[in-house]
Write a structure and sequence with these properties.
Layout (H helix, E strand, L loop, with lengths): L75 E9 L2 E10 L5 H12 L8 E5 L3 E4 L31 E4 L13 E4 L15 E7 L1 H8 L3 E4 L2 E5 L3 E10 L21 E10 L11 H14 L5 H8 L13 E5 L6 H26 L5 H22 L2 E2 L5 H9 L5 E4 L9 E7 L2
Parallel strand pairs: 12-13
Antiparallel strand pairs: 1-2, 1-10, 2-7, 3-4, 4-6, 5-6, 5-7, 8-9, 11-12, 11-15, 14-15
Helix pairs in contact: 5-6
Length: about 425
Amino acid sequence: MMPSMRMVFVASALVAALGSCGEGPEAPQALEAASSSAEGEGLLGPRPVVAPTGTQGRISGFAPGGPIPDEALADYHIRMEVAIAGTSVGTMEFDLWPEEAPVTVRNFLRLVDEGFYDGLGFHRVLREFMVQGGCPKGDGTGNSPHGTLPAEFSTAPERDHRYGVLSMARMGGDPDSASCQFFLCCDDGPALWNLDGEYTTFGRLSRGVSTLEAIASVPVSSRRGEPSVPGVEIEIVDAEVVRGPAPKGEAELRRPGRVEAAVPRVVVHSLLVACGTTPGRSPRTPEEAAARAAELLARAEGEALLTLAQEASDEPGVREDPRYAVWRLLAEGVRDREGDLEVRALSRRLQGELQDAANRMGKGELTRQDYIALSRRLQREQSEFLLEHRWRSSSELAPAVSEAAFALEVGERVVVPYDPARSPRGYTVLERVE
């Protein structure tokens, strides 16, 4: 289960649940996946499933205290064949990180070598987050016959949760509760950032992007509010330990790009004329809001919409700072990966500064008042950065407002009418500026 955030220094971080119980708070909405594959690897067509090899070819010796020492674990990698609805979608091969997580790697090698995962599956799929498997009960409640593992968490950047990384699922409140269930990251965005230092990463996909994408693209249904239950069976046909280094596939391991949107991003200025009861303002009927929006649109012909927004918008914060009326919008499925990384770097720096200040306060080198002042300064720095640089997903807006923003030409203005379902806050005046 996903832990609570230690610090809110991440823009729009998506909270998701990861745990051996398979239940947790609301997770990111699964989206339709890309159909293209990474360069150098085409999508594999359907082919008959190859039956597991059973115990033939097993290496043995991975049990704790066995003949294979920790320093020899790096001589092995994992190959895993997966079938969806009874048809093979190819294999994935994984590099393991025994130097950083020797107990976890040994446990995974042991379970694979014993044939534990053969015939099990992936019971949880979240397209924008991860795919989780390895449960002997198939529902997220099963555990390993060999007990649980001590945490081997790390905050080192090279062990971050990112596309293709293997990590262990666990119970949310117990860092030492991982056993056999694992998850494989199928994105590299903000949804994963809260896992770093909280879950044990122990390897990464080296070849098999098309197979991972096939798993992550399976249609899902909801259970207890989380859209993660696969609509068809996803089976680990055969997992085996292979001696030697894992073969390399893609030159750069990353999630394949989606089909590019016709208009991938826009910048608009906005002015909200709210209907009904808006906190701190007088009630306004839809008819009154429509008349007010038409009046402001006419005035916008002669003066900047941003200036009018600071005078008249009902959007929170705009009257104090007109930058809140500037929306940098990404089309559905488009990501600002460079911006995500900048936000992450900022988050880490600010959190480091605040932790250092807390340590100094504990030693009596900093007063509580100075600590509070520093915290507020860091929050302002974060807010300033996000105001100037953040690109928002169009899915954050009401559907009618989002559609109108991407339909505008540069310099064009429009009033998006109030609609209880598609634009419930009121009338929105928009102008596209980029």
